[in-house]
Amino acid sequence: MNTFRWALEAGRFVVTGEVGPPKGTDVRQMQDTLDLLIPAVDALNVTENQSAVMRMGSLAVSHEVVLRGGEPICQVAGRDRNRLALQNDLLSAHFLGIRNVLCLTGDHPLLGDHKAAKPVYDFDSVNLVQCVKNLNAGRDWAGNELQGATDFFVGAVVAPDADPLEPQFMKFQKKVEVGADFFQTQAVYDMEAFARFMERVRSLVDGGRVKVLAGLVVLGSVGMARYMNDRVSGIRVPPAVLSEMEDAGKEGARAKGMDICARQIRFCLDNRVCDGVHIMAPGRESLIPDILALAGIGGPSLALGAEAPDDCERRDAAKGSR
Length: 322
Description:
Blueprint: H1 3-9, E1 14-19, H2 28-37, E2 43-46, H3 58-67, E3 72-77, H4 83-95, E4 100-104, H5 125-136, E5 153-158, H6 166-177, E6 182-187, H7 191-201, E7 211-217, H8 222-231, H9 239-270, E8 276-280, H10 288-294, H11 309-321
């Protein structure tokens, strides 16, 4: 059973985390991070050459998440591979037990550590979503029938703080139309503005079929907040949050960043603004369980009136025996 998909479709408020593969073959620290986060979240995103920096592949690490009893969300980017290789990897991912994918266009190589690399961009994120839905329907991109269809839960991204914002709504709607099942947003800090964004998004989510998770990046310092404002497109840290980080000082910055993130989680949950949160703490993933505890969430899938998977299976088995 895909427990992440089940939790969203059952109406639970879900929590996802994120792990970056190592830049090399030493996986010990990554494995420790997986063991810490898998019990704490509903699913783990595995990044794919994030920021165009070469690392171990998302496919291999997503399989490691499966082996360790977790639910991976395998990121797939159109930047590095053509449609043949992308479909090859998707079929391989399904064979390895991966059932969630996040479709990305991918940052340009000029932003990363291999600036001479040639980008492919045979597919953008919309094409990728459509491609995965075709595989789920038993066909490849060229229309050829597969010997066995995939069963992926298909994710995409949206940037609520982009300026201008209208192109984001247009692309969001395109992704919904071609079959996206869930969205994870880029980092949001102004929660009132995010709530207004979600009011409009709710009219585009296909009657509630499509789920949206708020992306929350844990701040580690006021310098980090300023850098995100100045250098990271589509992310805006409001003055009030900047002031909080400044007032906390160097010694209190870590605790203040955790507190802000916990407060954001509670805002989303208490106001039913969205369907869950995606927490990102690059290099500080060990903070995520403590942040969830601060937010009053003791484990994955805080129930919102839904039966547990085992209960559903027992109920279905009982029906079958009548």
